[in-house]
Amino acid sequence: MAKANEFSIIDRYFQQKSLRTQHQDVLLSIGDDCAVVQPKPDSKLVFSIDTLIAGVHFPLDSSPEQIASKALAANLSDLAAMGAEPAWFTLALSLTESNPNWLERFSNTLLDMANDYGIQLVGGDTTRSTVLTITIQVHGYIKGEPLLRSNARVGDLIAVTGKLGSAALGLQIALNPESFSHFSEHHRTQALSALHHPNPQLKVGTILQNYSRCAIDISDGLCADIGHILEQSGCAARVDVEQIPLADCLQSIPQHQALKMALTGGDDYQLCFTLTETAYQELKDEYPKLDFTIIGRICSGQGLQLMANDNPYELIAKDEKGYNHFG
Ligand code: ADP
Ligand code: MG
Fold first, then answer.
1. Which of 10, 19, 21 is the pocket-test mutation for ligand 1 (most atoms within 8 Å of CB)?
2. Which domains does the chain have, with CATH numbers?
3. pTM of the complete model
4. I need a surface site. Which of 60, 208, 236, 263 has the fewest CB within 10 A?
5. Neighbouring residues of the ion ligand 2, judged by CB less than 5 Å
6. Is the CB of 30 under 6 A from ligand 1?
7. pLDDT tens digits for 115-173?
8. Comparing C-alpha atoms, which of 129, 138, 134 is closest to residue 106?
9. Is any ligand 1 atom within 6 A of the Cβ of residue 91?
10. Are the C-beta atoms of 205 and 293 separated by less than 8 Å?
């Protein structure tokens, strides 16, 4: 990208718009060789980075709004899964062309969302490439202990936030709209919005800090993501499929298929976490309105066993346990 052009893009679409969200701990933001921050004392810093590649992580015809919200949400969801509070982020953008309309829409969505979640854009890189890619690195604070995949213990309850499966349905609708024309407008909108505008569970994540020690965000699909917890914690789990909170938009789908979407579909960006019986009671008492559901229990052994009415439930073939780039 020609330098003058690159600088006007940075200034117009990113630097100016980033000024809406300003944290006191940022001493120097976009414009110099580096950003400079003065981290809060007595807090841990956490980082996470994710790249979205056009045609791989999102369809080539995705709107700039969809790409921006997905790129930031995926990263914010990782912060939520650690129990972290968002602080700053950087953005590396590779563009195939300099399209003012695209840049305006992309940066508006990105920086509106950043402002909503209280995360400040402090730097980045802008290049030209043959493929559109968006890399975002987020930084966050943790006051206590991070919620780790390796911290599940035998006897813990397994819980999920919100409802599952709407993003998976949204993906089916996006790929094949005609097949879903008999669905209500309301349910189609709900599913597509879950797919394109996920809500990372940052508030819940910070609450869980005081009640749980183990969490993961549901990005690959519940079964695959619980699998990560089990592997890293060295234990097994039983999940009762009848307890899985299904998204409303799955109502008109046969239960077996709806469960399949909820259990294997990615991109829900809800949290799956474990907690002791005592912590569960405390959490329920202190946050009666918190939207979460107990779906199973950690036990000794290996692997995830799905159950229905105390019988093993076979829903998922071995080859479809969620999305894996090199699988
Ligand atoms: P350098 O040549 O030192 O890498 P750049 O010319 O790439 O610097 O960037 C100039 C400034 O603009 C830096 O502060 C950088 O962090 C910031 N920047 C570049 N691209 C972006 C972007 N897409 N979003 C936010 N900040 C950016
Ligand atoms: Mg640079």
1. 10
2. 6-142 (3.30.1330.10), 149-320 (3.90.650.10)
3. 0.93
4. 60
5. 125
6. yes
7. 999 999 999 999 999 999 999 999 999 999 999 999 999 999 999 999 999 999 999 99
8. 134
9. yes
10. no
